[in-house]
Design brief:
about 250 residues; alpha+beta; six-stranded antiparallel sheet; 9 helices
């Protein structure tokens, strides 16, 4: 039996794969088939109810993984893990599977119906890499938000999915902004969280309580997750996340 167990365990090819020592890592989870999942359940192009569900999932991930920072846009969540991260022995298999499971469970519990996430791991050699990664994801948020506003505006005018997609082919960002502006929508004035995503990080605060034995009020320092729906952009955003991760 020992020989059989050894042979079977040797077939777990990726079990020993771990994050590189001293590397920063980001776990990113994405909703599986969420375009279809959200089509009849939520308002388009953005629905605060869906954003609230993603916030619940992001908060759960940041808490369970002990991450330094989390960011969500559209149906994805990124959680930053610093080089000292040692949960699960830094095993990639467990990190990916449990991250997808945590997001799936948190979202499903909040939504009251099943939804599924997958996960992947990104690694960087230094803080600059992480800042670049987060800047990249925020740029993606802005691009997707502009496309989404244009697409669903055209769909609302009666165009089919194919017609709306063709209408937007090979159009520049300036063209898309003009399309919206001609219909009374100033893209720069839509809610910030739609254009720049939502950030999450740990902050400390003082909590006052009463000590019944001593009969005095006492103050303790506690930690909580801050949810920021008014993120800056470009260099200001890079400075923000660099400061949070330093």
């Amino acid at each position: 039996m020992k020989d059989l167990e050894a042979r079977m365990r040797s077939r777990e090819w990726f079990h020993s794969l771990t994050l590189l020592p001293g590397a920063w890592a980001v776990v990113r989870v994405d909703g599986r088939s969420f375009s279809r999942y959200t089509e009849t359940r939520f308002d388009k192009p953005f629905d605060p109810r869906f954003s609230a569900l993603m916030t619940d999932a992001a908060t759960a991930l940041l808490t369970e993984l002990g991450g330094r920072y989390a960011y969500t846009e559209s149906d994805e969540i990124s959680v930053v893990l610093d080089p000292a991260f040692d949960l699960f022995g830094r095993e990639v298999e467990k990190l990916v599977s449990l991250s997808a499971g945590i997001a799936t469970a948190a979202f499903t519990h909040a939504a009251g119906e099943p939804a599924v996430f997958d996960a992947r791991v990104w690694m960087g050699t230094g803080l600059d890499d992480v800042v670049d990664y987060l800047s990249w994801r925020q740029a993606d948020a802005a691009r997707c938000a502009l496309n989404g506003w244009c697409y669903w505006t055209l769909r609302g005018e009666g165009m089919s999915a194919r017609q709306a997609s063709r209408e937007l082919e090979r159009t520049s960002a300036a063209d898309k902004n003009e399309l919206l502006f001609s219909r009374g929508v100033n893209f720069n004035e839509v809610p910030v969280w739609q254009r720049r995503g939502v950030g999450f990080w740990w902050e400390t605060y003082e909590k006052t309580g009463h000590d019944p034995i001593r009969g005095t009020d006492v103050t303790a320092v506690r930690r909580r997750i801050r949810t920021e729906r008014d993120l800056p952009m470009k260099d200001a955003y890079r400075d923000l996340v660099r400061g949070l991760l330093t």
